[in-house]
Each structure stands twice: as C-alpha cells, then as structure tokens.
C-alpha cells in the first residue's frame, strides 16, 4: 500500500511539473484530445441524431451502430489505424471520434424522441415550423438525455485517450506506458491515478449539467432516460 | 489468410486464453449484480448508495484500474486474476442497475398471488421473481458479455495474454493481418457467446416463445436493454 504513497509523492514532486513532459502539459494534452474528439464527433452525430429522432426514420441505424461499436475492441481500432496512418495523433484522434459517435448519436436521438408528444403536437398546432419544434420544444425537453449521451461519450473518450499514448507522445497515458516499460510502478500508478481522477471529475461535472437540464419532472412517467451504456476503453 | 495458417496454434492459444478470462468475469458479474440488484430492490436507501458507487466505479478507466487492483489486493500485475477482477467490477457496475430494473419489472400482484398460494420466500424468489425478471436480466447480461469480451484485449497492454496480443504484436511488427485477425476473432467470440445466451434464454423461458404477444413483449425488453 505504500506504493500509493510513492505515487502521490511522484505526482507532488515539483520536478514532474512544467516542461514538455510535465504533468500539467500532459493534463492539458489529455483534455485537448478529449474535447477535440468529442467535439468532432458531436458536430456530426448530434445533428444526425436529432434528425432521426425528429423524423423517426433510421432508428435501426442507431441501435445497430451502438451494438456494433461495442463489440469492436478499441485497442484493435487504435492499432489498425495506427498502422495505416503512422505514429502520431491522427490515428488515435480518429479512433476516439469513432468511439464517441454512437453514444452521442443515441443520446441525441433518444432525447428528441423522448420529448412529450403532446407538447410537440401542441406546438405544431400553434403554427411552429419544424425548425422551431426541434429548437424550442424537442431539444429543451430532451436536453438531459442529449447531455447524457455527451457524458457517456466524454467518459469513454477520456478513458481511451489513455491508450492514445500507445501511438503518440500525448496525454497522461504516457506515464502509464513509460512506467510499464521501465518497471517504475510509482510512475505507472501516478499516471493511473491522474487519469482516474480526471475521468471522475469530468463525469461528476457532466452529471451536474445533466441534472440541471432535467428541470421540472415530466408529466408522463417517461423517466427512463436511455443512456447508451458506454463501451469501456 | 497465410498469416493465420502459419500461426494457427498461437492464435488458438490466445483465443482460449481470451475465453478463459471473459467467461469467469461475466459469471462473477452476474452473481454479484443479481445480489446487489436484489439488495437495492429490497432496501431502497441502501440501493441508491450501492448503485451510485457502482456507477462511480464504472467511470474509472480500464487501464488505470488494471494498475490499481494489484496494489490494493497484492496480486501480480500480469495475472489473469487481475484482469478478471477488473472486468467483473465493470460488469457488476453495469449490470446491477439492470438487475434492479428487472426485479421492478415483476408485477407485484403475481408475487402476492404466489404468497397467497402458500409459497415460501425462497419459493417466490426461485419460482416467481427470478423467472419473470429473467428476460430483462438476460438483455443486460448480453450487453455486458459483449463489452467484457471486447475489453479483455486491453490486458495485452500490461502483459496479460489474450486476443489483444494479436493487436499489440501486429502493431509492433507491422502485420495488418494479425491485427485484423485479432479484431475479427474478438467480435466472433462476442457473437458466439451472445447467440449462446439467446439460446439459453429461449430454453429457460419457454412461455415467451410462439405467441405474437410474447414476441412483442420480448421486443420491448430488448429495447429496454439497449437503452439501459
């Protein structure tokens, strides 16, 4: 158990902060990669999910992609893309975008779909255009579910961004792999603790956002917020 | 294909290793999650705490968990046991909530009727609760089976052998065929186990076959699991 003490000492050691391989730099890299991947995936997945939820067409696509991506080993995707695109950030970034996609798609689709049909019909009969329906009724009502998808995707990506260090000199995963290679358990454990702490913090933060979006309780008992179970990475 | 032919016994070894890690992890998850789900169903307050803790656990990334477990339990980093424990923790975290939903899906009137007929508590559990909640439970088990099989590959990064070795080894030596073989076989293991689960499910819940009404109910349960 004193290993935890060693790992903490490793994290607190001033020499491990600052510079191109410092903890602060790695932390920012990790966050930057995570946000970039989630943002890129969201730019396509959320509009697509909203479209599917609004029109009700293409539902099977959502279910199928969610199931299929869960079965594909993340490491396989990462290494295969790594061989094709070479060492560097492109391959892991692409893999992370692919990973984030299904959760975001499912969240957006389920969120829009979960909006109370009565409210949507009422808004339509008041003369709202389809755009207004989506932006003023369906998305606000389904916001918590959409954020749930975002939360699942972020969690998955921040975890998998650790593996990105296998292919490129990026993120907190570096400490893990460096420690593994040189049998430096404190460094490895320090990396593990930093990644876990970051993931927990992000998850808790997004959980708060999600709760804030939930607003007043819905009239119908439609509390079954469908959060696609994230594939682990 | 030639790579596969030349390395058949190695691939077969890794495949077996993979199954030997995934199957125990799933079995432990099922037992633990059913117990936790039952606990949460009976005592709401305890349940909220337990389910909160499991969802927190689920947000810990896999690779770091593989490094923390050996320190806490003093077991070797490069052991199957390490990976099985990590996977069982995730499986339990993911399945416990579904198990609670499964027990809640049982109509309380059926339970009351069984009680009125003189069934004991244990009898109600084995003959009413478990069979009637089984379809929802099974859909959750299918989800964790697929994700567990895929996650076993991560072990290769710390030196625990599985099909994941084909991924890391193929990457390091630049053999596309090896990586593709690893991916395809991992998916194949997941699909085979999934089919087995569906068959077992059909065998133990014979009342859900045939009638159109059963079919539509089954579809409802499956959708519930996808979104669970």
From TrEMBL, chain A:
Record SUPFAM superfamilies: MetI-like (SSF161098)
PROSITE patterns for this protein: ABC_TM1 (PS50928)
An example Gene Ontology CC term for this record: plasma membrane
Annotated InterPro entries: ABC_transp_perm/SBD, MetI-like, MetI-like_sf
Main location: membrane
CDD domains given in the database record: TM_PBP2
Annotated TM spans: 27-53, 60-87, 93-112, 133-151, 189-209
Domain ABC transmembrane type-1: 27-206
A Pfam family it matches: BPD_transp_1
UniProt-listed GO biological process terms: glycine betaine transport; transmembrane transport
Keywords, alphabetical: Membrane, Transmembrane, Transmembrane helix, Transport
Localization annotation: Cell membrane; Membrane
Family of the protein in this entry: Belongs to the binding-protein-dependent transport system permease family.
PANTHER family linked: GLYCINE BETAINE/L-PROLINE TRANSPORT SYSTEM PERMEASE PROTEIN PROW, POSSIBLE OSMOPROTECTANT (GLYCINE BETAINE_CARNITINE_CHOLINE_L-PROLINE) TRANSPORT INTEGRAL MEMBRANE PROTEIN ABC TRANSPORTER PROZ
Protein name as annotated: ABC transporter permease subunit
TrEMBL record, chain B:
Main location: membrane
One Pfam family here: BPD_transp_1
BP terms from Gene Ontology: glycine betaine transport; transmembrane transport
Transmembrane annotation, as ranges: 20-41, 48-75, 81-103, 136-159, 179-207
GO terms for cellular component: plasma membrane
Localisation: Cell membrane; Membrane
Segments forming domain ABC transmembrane type-1: 15-197
Bilayer disposition of the protein: Multi-pass membrane protein
Keyword terms, alphabetized: Membrane, Transmembrane, Transmembrane helix, Transport
InterPro entries (alphabetical): ABC_transp_perm/SBD (IPR051204), MetI-like (IPR000515), MetI-like_sf (IPR035906)
Family recorded in the similarity comment: Belongs to the binding-protein-dependent transport system permease family.
Protein name from the UniProt record: ABC transporter permease subunit
């Amino acid at each position: 158990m004193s290993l935890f003490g060693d790992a903490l000492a490793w994290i607190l050691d001033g020499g491990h902060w600052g510079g191109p391989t410092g903890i602060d730099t790695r932390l920012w890299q990790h966050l930057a990669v995570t946000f970039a991947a989630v943002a890129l995936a969201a730019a396509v997945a959320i509009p697509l999910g909203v479209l599917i939820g609004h029109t009700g067409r293409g539902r099977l696509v959502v279910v199928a992609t969610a199931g299929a991506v869960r079965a594909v080993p993340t490491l396989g995707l990462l290494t295969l893309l790594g061989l094709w695109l070479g060492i560097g950030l492109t391959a892991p970034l692409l893999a992370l975008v692919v990973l984030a996609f299904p959760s975001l798609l499912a969240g957006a689709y389920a969120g829009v779909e979960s909006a109370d049909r009565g409210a949507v019909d009422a808004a339509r009969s008041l003369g709202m255009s389809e755009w207004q329906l989506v932006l003023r009724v369906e998305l606000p009502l389904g916001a918590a579910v959409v954020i749930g998808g975002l939360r699942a995707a972020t969690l998955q990506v921040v975890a998998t961004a650790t593996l990105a260090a296998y292919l490129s000199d990026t993120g907190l995963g570096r400490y893990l792999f460096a420690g593994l290679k040189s049998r430096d358990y404190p460094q490895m454990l320090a990396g593990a603790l930093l990644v876990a702490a970051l993931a927990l913090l992000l998850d808790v933060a997004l959980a708060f956002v999600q709760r804030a979006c939930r607003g007043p309780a819905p009239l119908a008992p439609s509390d079954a917020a469908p959060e696609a179970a994230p594939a682990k990475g | 294909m030639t790579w596969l032919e030349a390395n058949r016994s190695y691939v077969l070894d890794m495949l077996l290793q993979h199954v030997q890690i995934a199957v125990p992890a799933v079995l432990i998850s099922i037992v633990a999650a059913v117990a936790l789900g039952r606990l949460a169903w009976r005592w709401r307050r305890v349940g909220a705490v337990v389910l909160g803790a499991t969802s927190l656990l689920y947000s810990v990334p896999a690779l770091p968990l593989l490094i923390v477990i050996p320190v806490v339990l003093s077991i070797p980093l490069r052991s199957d046991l390490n990976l099985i424990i990590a996977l069982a923790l995730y499986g339990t975290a993911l399945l416990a909530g579904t198990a609670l939903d499964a027990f809640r899906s049982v109509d309380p009137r059926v339970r009351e009727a069984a009680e009125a007929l003189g069934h004991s508590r244990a009898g109600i559990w084995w003959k009413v609760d478990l069979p009637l909640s089984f379809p929802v439970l099974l859909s959750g088990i299918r989800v964790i089976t697929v994700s567990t099989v895929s996650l076993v590959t991560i072990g290769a990064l710390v030196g625990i052998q599985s099909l994941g070795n084909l991924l890391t080894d193929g990457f390091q030596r630049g053999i596309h065929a090896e990586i593709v073989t690893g991916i395809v076989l991992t998916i194949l293991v997941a699909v085979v186990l999934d089919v087995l689960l569906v068959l077992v499910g059909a065998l133990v819940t014979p009342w859900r076959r045939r009638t159109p009404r059963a079919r539509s109910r089954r579809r409802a349960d499956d959708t519930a699991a996808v979104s669970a």
